[in-house]
Sequence to fold (609 residues):
Amino acid sequence: MCGIVGYVGHQEAADILLEGLKKLEYRGYDSAGIAVLQGEAIALRREVGKIRNLEREVLANPAAGTLGIGHTRWATHGRPTAYNAHPHTDCSGKLVVVHNGIIENYLELKNELTESGHSFNSETDTEVIAHLIESYNEGDLLLAVQKTYGRLRGTYACVVLDQRDPDRIVGVKAGNPLIAGLGDGEQFLASDVAAILSYTRDIIYLEDGEIIEVTRDAITVYDPDLRPKNKEVSRIDWNLVAAEKAGYEHFMLKEIHEQPATLTNTLGGRFDDRQGKLFLDELNLSAETLAKFERISIVACGTALYSGYVGKYLLEEFARIPVDADFASEFRYRNPVIDDRTLVIVVSQSGETADTLAAMREAKRRGATTLGIINVKDSAIARECDGVFYIHAGPEIGVASTKAYTAMVAAFVLIALHLGQVRGKLSTVQVGEVLAELKTIPSVISRMLEGADHIQDVAQAFAACRDFLFLGRGVNFPTAMEGALKLKEISYIHAEAYAAGEMKHGPIALIDEHMPVVAVATKSATYDKVLSNIQEVKARNGTVIVVATEGDLNITEYADQIIYVPAVSEALSPLVNVVPLQLLAYHIARLRGCDVDQPRNLAKSVTVE
Ligand code: AGP
Fold:
């Protein structure tokens, strides 16, 4: 995690660094710092908490100068304190480093450096980078960084500034993102384009193992042997307005309401329902190749994985192919049975989640074909996959993923139909029927959102509870999992999800009047079974909040609270049913006074193991 910004130019570096760090706060927000070359010395400012605290400190204690580096932290090694905040210095205090990622061999290096006389001031792994560069620095910062790179193990990106080498900053990318922005007499470095988009749209994406030197007039990228490389400059065509709140109290609420529009973007141009045709050339997989796969493995983390669980149901239903879905962090270490007859689908909003990236690489190493379902364009995973399905959900800022989830599920619907068609399991008419309904889903969700005020009353009634159980079956079991994840991550209420039929095998022991049960009980093949499960809860004095299909009056007999959703087919119901659960979590968290967009201990992009 963590966010990095670097600036070399003619404007006040502190202003640019602070503005950039605010845009990167989604990557971590437990402490932050900047270092600016002020005359011939380095002005270092570090504060615990969000960027606004650092901003106050810089206002009180200005750091004037036109060259600097900055960092927003999500703690891995060492608590979130001012002395653990970046930038970190070497012994001389003349060299500063910011870093995103983990240095796996930092203890070994720290011992070696301590023995040779270096003294450390923090509990971080980052500080070894500063001391290692110091130990190799014989007057050429670039060379010292290259030698240091050769000693570090792990996945990371870092940027270095040395007051004795006052016209440049140097960076290296080794697994975590680092991009450079080209300006006129000023140049930028950052973890993400959003940090520097107000200044430039011309971006260079670094590859792993590349070392970068940034001066006011030029950006030079080197390979690990310090041979200069020719790098392509990409022009960014989206803007930051898409990443602002547009009058909503929180990004999460805005993003929930954006779902009709994002789904329209995800689906747009990808099918013709009247002809029952899909246009998915971007998968980079011919119909013949797709038809030959014997199994599919879906790997992802968190919400992205839950979309994958829905994908498993859909792929098995429509394409009749065996599918497993697993946590990327488990998959990468469990010796999975995959080979060149396996299609591995990796799902990620950010496209840079460390476990998902590593799982994808492992799958490729074993000969599988990889397909990414990704939101962030040109992200690490997107660039390495054999084929990419971009979900086009736009920037998602709220740490709790909402619009990316429904867009990922929509991607799975299209991919499952496509596979069903090329494998001869679905006729053109069948595909056309599902697509015709899919086309209506954005307006179905709009209608659902217009009538969603009642969810605030439900939230009010349950905001003080300490535990929740979520139940669902079939394709809506993942909906229950996603609902529970949303609630726990932003409201800090303990919430767990179970397949409704599994409840009687253990969790039923938890049921009493203090633990509300949220049941997804929309019309489906297992509707009657879910009703029985709800009755089992009621028989034990449980309180039940039911997500039910509009017009289902029967449910009033069983439910304490009902949230109605429009009727849609079972296969597409996860797209609709999750929306009230997102809203329920949002309103409960808001009523509890939680930081909805930046919940404690989390970060939007998890680039560490
Ligand atoms: C979502 O609400 C979570 N914050 C988290 O589970 C997230 O979905 C997960 O970390 C995966 O992120 P990715 O989609 O960017 O790979």
User: Anything to note?
Assistant: The mean pLDDT is 93.
